[in-house]
UniProtKB/TrEMBL annotation:
Record flagged with keyword Electron transport: no
Domain (D-isomer specific 2-hydroxyacid dehydrogenase catalytic): residue spans on this chain: 33-322
PANTHER family, alphabetized: 2-HYDROXYACID DEHYDROGENASE-RELATED (PTHR10996), GLYOXYLATE_HYDROXYPYRUVATE REDUCTASE B (PTHR10996:SF283)
Annotated ranges, domain D-isomer specific 2-hydroxyacid dehydrogenase NAD-binding: 112-291
Native source species: Hyphomonas hirschiana VP5
Protein name per the record: Glyoxylate reductase
Coiled-coil boundaries: none
ATP-binding is among the record's keywords: no
GO CC entries: cytosol
Keywords from the UniProt entry: NAD, Oxidoreductase
Pfam families assigned: 2-Hacid_dh, 2-Hacid_dh_C
SUPFAM superfamilies xrefs: Formate/glycerate dehydrogenase catalytic domain-like, NAD(P)-binding Rossmann-fold domains
Family to which the UniProt record says this protein belongs: Belongs to the D-isomer specific 2-hydroxyacid dehydrogenase family.
Amino acid sequence: PASKLKVVVTRKLPAPVELRMKELFDARLNESDRPFSVEELAQAMQTADVLVPTVTDKIDGRLMARAGDQLRLIAQFGAGVDNIDVASAVQRGITVTNTPGVLTDDTADVAMALILAVPRRMHEGVQIMEAGKFDGWTPTWMMGRRLSGKRLGIIGMGRIGQAVARRARAFGMQIHYHNRKPVSSRIEESLEATYWDSLDQMLARMDIVSINCPHTPATFHLINARRLGLMKPEAYIINTARGEVIDEAALARAIRAGKIAGAGLDVFEREPAVNPELIGLPNVLLLPHMGSATIEGRTEMGEKVIINIKTFADGHRPPDRVIPAIL
Ligand code: 8YV
């Protein structure tokens, strides 16, 4: 029964989630604010029936090889599961679940905030005000770029990509997208979205590019120096997905060389490290991986983790099982 399951949670979660976990399971919670070390993770995998990791826990093949036979479920607190070697988990008969859906709107809001803020030079404006450097309005003061009528190219048209598209349409943008395959014609029509089979061709024509795909072997450094070179010099790039999708060093070089106009980034290749070449630029707005950071979202993510664990413990297929083939 669910009540006896030993559930190890690697990070501090919202209090109501932790409370519920303690009621339902033999829950071992992380009281500290720091992540588990590799050894602590390994130990958790050797003793827990269920592991609840987050994006900051790298559960690779080596760690997976040290898992005990009792470990049956890895219930990720998060939508992206690129920190987990899902294929080797499944090979070992370990089910992996995630928490999609409940963070869609929050993450799309942050993407839209960056889409609004970067071309309109918002954070440069904030810096000017905070430095007391507003010397008065002039007709050419702080001119940015208009959004309406511009082309937004979304890479990855899943739940979050579509939510970004809906928001951008309300601001008068034209929606274009690249995906492994086109979305249904119903969705395409409702968004009046144009599908590009060729990412290269799409990139060359977009005013803003938003990354909304998962990080997989196929999307690692999808945006590299060559592809940045295809973009218009007036174009901006926004990333609220995973840092690894962009070659961060190449992005910094492209921005500094004026090959693209700027970037809004919520995620980084080697978090929490940020390429120093990206810091301090007026046309680069950086956020500390806060796309899903709302009280509501993080609580609902925890509730989803609990539902996945309970369903699994009751002998049923958990609602958010991750299937490696579709990654
Ligand atoms: C979380 C995320 O902050 O869900 C994801 O994939 O990136 C964010 O919502 C974090 O990853 C939770 O593990």
